Amino acid sequence: MFSLCAGRKAFAGLLALSMAACGPLIPPPRYPVEPPPRPSPVPTPTPTPVPIVARAGPAVATLGITEADAAGALRSFAESCPRLLSRTDASGLSVGSDWQSACAAAPGWPAGSARGFFAQFFETAQVGDGQAFATGYFEPEIAGARTHLPGYDVPVYKLPPDLIRDWPAETPQDQRTGRAPLGRYNDSGVFVPYYERAEIEDGALAGKGLEIAWAQDAIDFFFLQIQGSGRLRAPDGTVMRIGYAGQNGREYVGIGSAMRERGLIGDQPGQYPGSMQGIVQYLRERPEEGRALMRENKSWVFFTELTGDGPLGALGIPVRAESSVAADPAYTPLGAPVWLKVDRPEASGLWIAQDTGGAIKGPNRFDTFWGAGERAKTIAGGMSTRGTAYILLPKGTLARRPAS
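The structure corresponding to this sequence follows.
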């Protein structure tokens, strides 16, 4: 989908802004910062894996999982199984074959006994100190339409074909390591950075047939871009779901941080409230200054229409409200169940790691998904909670791991 205090989190829940003193009010995007790479003859160095200390935790049956919680998690787990079995676990905690028995049983498991499924097939593992920090994110919904209706004048662009990855001619050969930057070739055939937000808003991509939809409000669309996915609701009530397709490769600037640094938001007289509502209030009451401020964030996100029944997570399958959680795949196998016991009761329970975030980094760092609508927005926006986390692994997995 994404830390205000622990590093810089992706847009976890628009945004736990009540923690303003902890860091950027509007953090870096939860979406990936670049589209899938094109083939390149330049090899990317492989990072050295960091050994993970994982210890056995309590028995699954003692965790206090409710049947309703387990049922939702079982559905999401079953949907994750094809990826669990085929992908490499970057954390090193498991291999695909570890999950075969659980995945074979999941689709036909009897209704009403989901707790028994997790108790039968899984053991718990404490990764590191097990001290969890969790935030929340949601799927925003704004006014938008597929066609250019009166009053719907903010274009939603698909990924442009001239956005490519290459090395500027002036980059020495010995410095062309890793992944080449994103950009475009100008009319003179020179590789240059891609259009930034201000240029795109001023019409750099207009008339090229890239519009897949139109939003009604530029501020609403600005925040949907940060989130990386969302819904467009047309005047006739129809909904179009859009998801991240790519980014222009330009710098991301958190406007909340900029506003705080300039004394525009805070708790002093004359300042706007240091919250999401305060930021939006400033942008709407001061349209000229607000537009200039948003343009300081040069990043622009391109979208594609999503036709499934939910926004797609990092596994390429739909994330589910109150069942899916974003995690760092270097510490948590994507597709694995995660048990959270935190000081926000609504976030305590069983989740399935199906997503990642731009700054959801480190062991026991999670971002809970709450779906769409006002309730989801309210819960996710205020979610910032700490407690304990356990990763659920197939029984016997820890015994088969080399000693940490």
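The radius of gyration is 22 Å.
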